[in-house]
Amino acid sequence: MRFIDILETIKKRRSIHQFQTKEVPESVLEEIFSYGSWAPTHYMKEPWNIKIYQKAGKQLLVDAIIRSYQRLGMLRSDQTEKTRRSIQAMKNFLIHIPHHALIYFPITSDPVRYEEDYAAVCAFIQNSQLAAWSFNVGMLWTITPYMHDPEFAREVELDADEMKIAAVMQIGYPEKINKPKERTPIVNKMEFITK
């Protein structure tokens, strides 16, 4: 039986920026995201959906990211040697990461419901990160400009008018774990109202 101290896991979990090339078994990924699904969710809507890009499937995502960065002006589109080297370096970095999980949810026109769903998806992501840590798996929760590019959404077979990309999680066994950074004492952020 697996026993973890949730309070210690909350404190010890780190965002991982360097991954081993070793893949996480699909059964472990399923278990991790299964724990994620115990997040609080308004009206039991469970709005989260996941596309996991791995093995040869990573190339589809990486190519879509590069094209989006070029459309957004974050990468040049010319054919100079410098541009080709920059693009290849970015591709190599992203392909090296064993798994990329694109997390998305249906868009609702009601702004209150939309916020409820987004909050539930964020709770799902954090639950998943904590569960992953107990399996010695690291994650990096990324929010990047291409997530707001409708053409990128189309290329990954999502309708940007129907679905909101909440995050792209980079996943794998950590190559390096950073030291913890001190947090602001919570008393500096709290106010008790008694009257």
Task: Explain this structure.
With 195 residues, the protein is an alpha+beta fold. It has a single domain (6-188), classed as NADH Oxidase, CATH 3.40.109.10. It has helices at 6-12, 26-36, 58-71, 81-96, 111-134, 150-155, and strands spanning 49-54, 99-106, 138-142, 163-172. Strands 1-2-4-3 form a four-stranded antiparallel β-sheet, with helices on both faces. α3 (58-71) packs across α4. It starts with 5 loop residues before the first helix and ends in a 23-residue tail after the last strand. The mean pLDDT is 95.
N-to-C span: 48 Å
Which percent bin holds the helix content? 40-55%
CATH superfamily: NADH Oxidase
Please name the CATH topology: NADH Oxidase
**Largest beta-sheet characterization:** 4 strands, antiparallel
Helix-strand pattern: HHEHHEHEHE
Could you provide a short overview of the structure?
By secondary structure, the chain is of the alpha+beta class. The protein has 6 helices and 4 strands, in the order ααβααβαβαβ.
Q: SSE layout and pairings?
A:
Elements: H1 6-12, H2 26-36, E1 49-54, H3 58-71, H4 81-96, E2 99-106, H5 111-134, E3 138-142, H6 150-155, E4 163-172
Sum up the structure in keywords.
single chain; 195 residues; alpha+beta; NADH Oxidase; four-stranded antiparallel sheet; 6 helices; 40% helix; 15% strand; globular
